[in-house]
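[Q] Does anyone have a clean structure-token version of this?
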Amino acid sequence: MKQSLIRVWQSFDIEQIKKQLLLAGELTANCENCQHLGIDFVKEVKCPNCETYFKYIGFRTKNNKAEELFAIKRLAEKRPDLMIIDYEDIKRACGKSQARNLLDI
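[A] Here you go.
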């Protein structure tokens, strides 16, 4: 049976995701928990600085969606232990959370 990647929407605690999130760029990533830079996201299972184990990974937005999908497929093969999330969703949710905190809602 051929496997395909599909997007799934599920409710998560944004703060919990941010604590275990690896944010990947073209070559390296950073830990969203402590903002440590230069992490090899293909090899590192935990942050070398704060020692948080990574459970989630998001990609900085790429302009080319085909290129983004290729990167996601490649990462899914190399790191099946990480849940790949849409970083745009995280940014939106964090923005809403910060607005609520500012307005004390």
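[Q] Thanks! Anything notable?
[A] Helices lie at 14-19, 65-78, 87-103.
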